[in-house]
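Problem 12. The chain below contains 234 residues. Write out its predicted structure in token notation.
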Amino acid sequence: GVNCVLFVTSIVILFKQGGRRGLNVLLVVTNIFLFLGCTTHFSIQFNHYYTTLGSTGVTGYANETLLMFGGDILMSIIDFVSELILCYRCWVSDMLPLSACIHGLAHLVLSTVPTVLVLPPALVWLGLMGYILALCMNVLITALIVGCIWYVSRHCRNIIVGASGTAKVISILVESSAIYLIMQLSYVTLFALGLPTEQIAGLATVQIYVIILFTHSLFHPAYPVSLIGHLSQY
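Solution.
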């Protein structure tokens, strides 16, 4: 429900901003793709659990199927696109972050097994490396944005002086993608422990990823984050 509201709002704002600055087709396409992707992922998971519980009960309800395998691949692709958007917001054009995203996606796809709930020990490290690559990239981007917020805020104290402490903290958390980082770290931890809980966490993580990225579109709907743009001049 939150995704639907934020998706419609972000698309409306993107088109309104496009009338004045020129429509950013890249953000429109990625927003639509992420919304369709997370909705499809939710539908696959919901249909599987609802159908299985109704027909066979609890026994075997979490067993992987070919359709669930497709959902796992879709989750990896959504994670990949989300990382690319974070790169885009930071004006990162270097091949190193992009390479980390691509290798992370490859690791996750290769480590997906369509017949088991929990990965075999031999494949856990392959999948873990994929998530760690994405996590390291996320840490780097979050640090860049937080540092830039601090740098720019020193020259804009008269603009933010009226905001409450809580509002400032929330603004920094959303703007810096720190919530995205927290969710990703939590999921990677559960994945590394090899617990079935990571399957449940994965369902929520996909939705929260997209919610956070839609919120970024509302902050900077037409172009990458302006704070990083200011910092790049130096």
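Discussion. Confidence is low (pLDDT under 50) at residues 221-234. Students who got a different answer should revisit the alignment rule from Section 12.3.
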